[in-house]
């Protein structure tokens, strides 16, 4: 880790869902930036329980990592219910998870990340933040086109031009496998952060929190749970 990174004077706004990836990104930002705020989006998702988990994660980060506490600023929640009205997907409607004719799973919510980042940039502009941090990744992912590096680079240019001020989009997980994301969490906060992620974050598309697996809570069979499970197992195997 770059020892100078934590001295970055800018304010970052983390797109924070309360899941594994966004929690890792939040820790990454807290390690680097002078001030970090978070934003969550309520868009009618079935796994709305993540909105409760995100508050718990913030509290646990403050309590367990006091050197980050002063950097962790305000939280914001934006109502984007319009996405649910526009989308007919397995995340926003009562549908079985399956692949579509275009090769994408029906968990893909068209334009979601584009809208998230657009609204986040508007909030960041008002809050004096110039860095947006998101957990998008094109390595272990379902082929979502709005998670690709080229998409995010193009959007960074558009946001900066449209706001007439530099807006940086940081995606620290972009080229990491899920196993490497678990490893990054350990690098940032040791096993304490790993255990926090296992116990308190939420990934399951079905919104299930009942059963606790070695990798966290969830149904254990939806694509999000399977990816998290396989990544955790691969990380443990690599670790020894």
Automatic annotation (TrEMBL):
<feature type="binding site">
    <location>
        <position position="225"/>
    </location>
    <ligand>
        <name>Zn(2+)</name>
    </ligand>
</feature>
<comment type="similarity">
    <text>Belongs to the QueC family.</text>
</comment>
<dbReference type="GO" id="GO:0016879">
    <property type="term" value="F:ligase activity, forming carbon-nitrogen bonds"/>
</dbReference>
<comment type="pathway">
    <text>Purine metabolism; 7-cyano-7-deazaguanine biosynthesis.</text>
</comment>
<protein>
    <recommendedName>
        <fullName>7-cyano-7-deazaguanine synthase</fullName>
        <ecNumber>6.3.4.20</ecNumber>
    </recommendedName>
</protein>
<feature type="binding site">
    <location>
        <position position="204"/>
    </location>
    <ligand>
        <name>Zn(2+)</name>
    </ligand>
</feature>
<keyword id="KW-0547">Nucleotide-binding</keyword>
<keyword id="KW-0862">Zinc</keyword>
<feature type="binding site">
    <location>
        <position position="219"/>
    </location>
    <ligand>
        <name>Zn(2+)</name>
    </ligand>
</feature>
<feature type="binding site">
    <location>
        <begin position="16"/>
        <end position="26"/>
    </location>
    <ligand>
        <name>ATP</name>
    </ligand>
</feature>
<dbReference type="InterPro" id="IPR014729">
    <property type="entry name" value="Rossmann-like_a/b/a_fold"/>
</dbReference>
<dbReference type="GO" id="GO:0005524">
    <property type="term" value="F:ATP binding"/>
</dbReference>
<keyword id="KW-0436">Ligase</keyword>
<keyword id="KW-0067">ATP-binding</keyword>
<keyword id="KW-0479">Metal-binding</keyword>
<dbReference type="Pfam" id="PF06508">
    <property type="entry name" value="QueC"/>
</dbReference>
<keyword id="KW-0671">Queuosine biosynthesis</keyword>
<dbReference type="GO" id="GO:0008270">
    <property type="term" value="F:zinc ion binding"/>
</dbReference>
<dbReference type="GO" id="GO:0008616">
    <property type="term" value="P:tRNA queuosine(34) biosynthetic process"/>
</dbReference>
<feature type="binding site">
    <location>
        <position position="222"/>
    </location>
    <ligand>
        <name>Zn(2+)</name>
    </ligand>
</feature>
<dbReference type="InterPro" id="IPR018317">
    <property type="entry name" value="QueC"/>
</dbReference>
<comment type="function">
    <text>Catalyzes the ATP-dependent conversion of 7-carboxy-7-deazaguanine (CDG) to 7-cyano-7-deazaguanine (preQ(0)).</text>
</comment>
């Amino acid at each position: 880790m770059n020892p100078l990174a934590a001295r970055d004077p800018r304010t970052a706004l983390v797109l924070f869902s309360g899941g594994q990836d966004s929690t890792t990104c939040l820790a990454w930002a807290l390690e680097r930036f002078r001030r970090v705020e978070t934003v969550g989006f309520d868009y009618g998702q079935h796994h709305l329980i993540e909105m409760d988990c995100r508050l718990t994660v913030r509290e646990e980060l403050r309590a367990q990592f006091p050197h980050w506490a002063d950097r962790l600023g305000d939280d914001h929640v934006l109502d984007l219910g319009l996405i649910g009205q526009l989308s007919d997907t397995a995340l926003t409607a009562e549908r079985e998870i399956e692949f579509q004719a275009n090769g994408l799973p029906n968990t893909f919510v068209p334009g979601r990340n584009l809208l998230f980042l657009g609204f986040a940039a508007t909030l960041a502009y008002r809050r004096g933040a110039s860095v947006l941090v998101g957990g998008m990744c094109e390595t272990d992912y379902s082929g979502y086109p709005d998670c690709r590096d080229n998409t995010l680079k193009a959007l960074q240019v558009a946001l900066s031009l449209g706001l007439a001020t530099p807006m940086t989009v940081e995606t620290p997980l972009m080229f990491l496998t899920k196993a490497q994301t678990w490893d990054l969490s350990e690098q940032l906060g040791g096993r304490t952060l790993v255990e926090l992620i296992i116990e308190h974050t939420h990934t399951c598309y079905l919104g299930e929190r009942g059963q606790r697996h070695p990798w966290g809570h969830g149904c254990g069979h939806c694509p999000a749970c399977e990816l998290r499970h396989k990544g955790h197992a691969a990380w443990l195997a690599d670790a020894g």
